[in-house]
Amino acid sequence: MEIQDKKLATAIEAIWDAAEVLFEKKDLARYVLKLEEAWDLLPLPKELYDDSYHIASFIAETYLELKDFPYALKWARTLQHCDPERADDGGREFILGKVLFDSKEMSEAEVQLSIAMHKSAGRVFEGADEKYLHAFKGIASVVEEELPDSIYEQIEQLSEAGNDLADADNYDGAIAKFTEALELIPAPKNNWEASTWLYASIGDMQFLKDDFKAAADNFFDALNGPDAQTVGFIHLRLGECLLELKQEDKSLDHLLRAYMLEGAEIFAAEDSKYFDFLRERVEL
Questions:
Q1: Which stretches of the chain are DSSP H helices?
Q2: What was the pLDDT predicted at 114?
Q3: Across the chain, which distance is largest between two alpha carbons, in Å?
Q4: End position of a domain, from candidates 75, 101, 133
Q5: How many domains does the chain have?
Q6: Does 191 map to a domain?
Q7: In angstroms, rounded to a whole number, what is the distance separating the alpha carbons of residues 276 and 19?
Q8: Mean of the per-residue pLDDT values for the chain?
Q9: Cα dist. 112→76, 95, 100, 117, 119 in Å?
Q10: Are residues 104 and 156 in the same domain?
Q11: Domain range for 30
């Protein structure tokens, strides 16, 4: 949920900016206190707001870095209830699992790290200290496998057929082909790279049909796939859909991510209103 009070949202943003300066100076002790100021400004119930997830996660991670385990655990547990509308990608369980591990609460740490592994197919462990990955038997064994050749070939054929229909502006026909291909992917679908581009392809067709709600749902699903967070096109289309749905704060977040990943050229073929919206709100 977005903060409706614009003055309050601006005040929280100003605190974020001040906190970023402290972070860049590696002044983590003051940085985390500044983040807590932002949390204090959130309206009640605080956990319902989109910003609550980002604030609580950064606070928990920072206290973990400072080795203040009681406070890290307090905030990691708070994080589990923040922004309930957020895509469930295992991130919140991973933070809690790390804090529990470093707090020597091994039984619960294993549970949370296992949940994080299965929800994310291991993606949340990328770049993290390998001690969390190898701490418990079975966690590191969850790896992304390759689809059988027979299934992958069918998916490719259906996708090519869908692309041909899309080129002919037959968006409904394209959606049917992409959906048929998606149904061939084993569960959980977001473990497989193919799901990322199939959800995105379906969402793209729905966007071109002006069915922005359905399109946004599919782009959110696409973001749960392997490495999808680094795909500028997904953030671009999701940001455009959310703008059409009047969810401006969320739209800005994804449009900015698209810009950061691909630069201004990703907007070149789009309606100028989307880049104008971004440029009016962010100094690029």
A1: 6-24, 28-41, 50-65, 69-79, 91-102, 106-120, 130-133, 149-167, 171-183, 193-208, 212-222, 232-244, 248-262, 272-281
A2: 87
A3: 60
A4: 133
A5: 2
A6: yes
A7: 28
A8: 91
A9: 11, 9, 9, 9, 11
A10: no
A11: 6-133
Residues 164/165/166/169 CA torsion (nearest 10 deg): 130
Does the residue 143 lie in any domain? no
Q: Please state the length of the chain.
A: 284
For the chain, list residues with pLDDT below 50. 142-144
pLDDT tens for each residue of 214-266:
999 999 999 988 778 888 999 999 999 999 999 999 999 999 999 999 999 99
- pLDDT of 63 reads 97
Which CATH number characterizes residue 101's domain?
A: 1.25.40.10
Rg for the chain, CA atoms, rounded: 21
Render pLDDT for 134-162 as a digit per residue (tens, 0 to 9). 777 666 554 445 678 888 899 999 999 99
Query: 55 and 16 in one domain?
Result: yes
Contacts of 66 (CB under 8 A, 6+ apart): 28, 29, 32, 72
Q: How many whole angstroms separate alpha carbon 139 and alpha carbon 87?
A: 22
